[in-house]
Design goal:
Layout (H helix, E strand, L loop, with lengths): L2 H25 L24 E7 L4 E9 L2 E4 L5 E2 L2 H13 L2 E5 L23 E6 L6 E12 L3 H7 L6 E8 L6 E4 L24 E7 L9 E4 L8 E2 L7 E3 L16 E2 L2 H6 L5 E7 L3 E7 L7 E10 L13 H26 L6 E4 L1 H4 L9 E3 L20
Antiparallel strand pairs: 1-2, 1-6, 2-3, 3-4, 5-9, 6-7, 7-8, 8-9, 10-11, 10-15, 11-12, 13-19, 14-18, 15-16, 16-17, 17-18
């Protein structure tokens, strides 16, 4: 081969190498996919670039859409006026796409999509997919569009389960990536969290009442006679009813709700209409604590009656300085001041967190508050009669003389 001809081959070779390198870079950028059995087609999913998730499902001829957005370093539920979302659930949900493995690959014609539940939810409700759109922070640039189709059971599991009296257990699902019928697979995930219901995605962290020292229930209107208040003077003291008790009755401490709202949760946010109703004849619960935090709870009722609507206002009056003990030693003052200051910082943070719930009204399960909403008569029991007479002496046994 002549030198000139060899030199003419160099530029095309360089171009080919450059194209190969560019192709490899694109493939590793996290936006391309490859359907290969046993592999993870979205392994390069750029989690940090996802700024919005849109879930669309059509089950009643009208598509339901949920939008989750990353804003101010936290995820929010757009459908609930920007209420904080459950970040752990979102992270787990996204990671399922990143970690999913292909169990089976296939290509389907347009007419076959309905058979595997991959019709677009905008166009059909029967045999339609749940569509997941992963968007960048601008809310427009699409990273991936994923259609979730029918769920499946492992081969042979339905027969085995039916013999044992159980139904088939789904452990895999059809998925179509980026609306490409050539990129359909059965993967080892069911994506059970792919729900467009906004309440499923709310951050369910809530208030927590610690160390109560006063509990009061105030009933409105004609039920005011059912109101009551109990107090406690110290951690080791007994609870007492703040009112005179009728003759023959005593306060039944065992029936009193002395640990109210110690670990509550909520089901959903209340509507504006439900919140407005709380200003009309709501039952009130007032709880004070030894730490200086106070909780004022308004309790209403939902139209269905299964949930109760509540609004909690948390306030606090925390001291600026520690009151030294009567016999406190000077050498103990430094450590006691430090411990007290650390405790006050914890209480300030708790007050900040709990008072963040003040602006919302919530739907809670009825048992959350009904255990507190006892009537005054339910806190009383009959006083046991004291024995006023000495017990009868047993008769002296007769001993027959010998």
């Amino acid at each position: 081969m002549k030198t000139g001809n060899f030199s003419n081959l160099i530029p095309p070779a360089i171009v080919l190498i450059v194209l190969i390198v560019i192709g490899m870079l694109i493939k590793g950028s996290g936006t391309s996919t490859s359907i290969v059995i046993g592999k993870e087609p979205l392994n390069g999913l750029p989690l940090s670039k996802i700024g919005s998730i849109v879930i669309t499902k059509n089950s009643d001829q009208t598509p339901s859409t949920l939008t989750l957005t990353r804003a101010d370093k936290q995820w929010i539920v757009e459908n609930k006026n920007g209420y904080p979302a459950d970040a752990d659930r979102i992270e787990k949900f996204i990671r399922e796409f990143k970690d999913m493995k292909v169990l089976r690959e296939l290509t389907a014609g347009k007419s076959q999509l309905g058979r595997i539940g991959l019709l677009d939810p905008d166009n059909a409700s029967i045999n339609s997919a749940t569509r997941i759109s992963l968007l960048e922070a601008d809310g427009e640039s699409i990273i991936h569009t994923l259609h979730l189709g029918k769920e499946l059971s492992a081969p042979g599991s339905e027969t085995q389960n039916s013999q044992q009296g159980f139904g088939g257990f789904s452990d895999r699902r059809f998925i179509m990536i980026d609306s490409k019928r050539s990129e359909i697979a059965v993967v080892d995930q069911t994506f059970s969290n792919a729900s467009p219901e906004p309440s499923d995605w709310l951050n369910k962290d809530f208030i927590k009442v610690d160390k109560p020292n006063s509990i009061e229930v105030i009933y409105p209107g004609s039920e005011a006679t059912n109101s009551w208040k109990i107090t406690k003077s110290s951690d080791v003291a007994e609870w007492k009813l703040d009112d005179k008790v009728a003759d023959g009755k005593i306060f039944d401490t065992a029936s009193a709700p002395t640990s109210p709202l110690s670990s509550p949760s909520f089901n959903d946010l209340a509507t504006d209409a439900e919140k407005a109703q709380l200003d009309k004849n709501a039952t009130q619960i007032k709880i004070g604590t030894f730490d200086g935090l106070n909780y004022h709870v308004k309790v209403g009722q939902t139209p269905s009656g299964s949930d109760r609507v509540i609004q909690v206002e948390t306030t606090g009056s925390l001291p600026e300085n520690r009151t030294p003990g009567e016999n406190e030693k000077a050498e103990d003052k430094v450590n006691l001041d430090k411990e007290w200051a650390e405790k006050q910082e914890e209480l300030k943070e708790k007050l900040r967190k709990d008072s963040a719930f003040n602006v919302y009204a919530y739907r809670v399960s009825s048992y959350t508050v009904e255990s507190i909403l006892k009537k005054r008569t339910e806190l009383l029991k009959d006083k046991e009669k004291e024995e006023t007479e000495s017990p009868a002496q047993p008769p002296v046994p007769f001993i027959k003389p010998q």
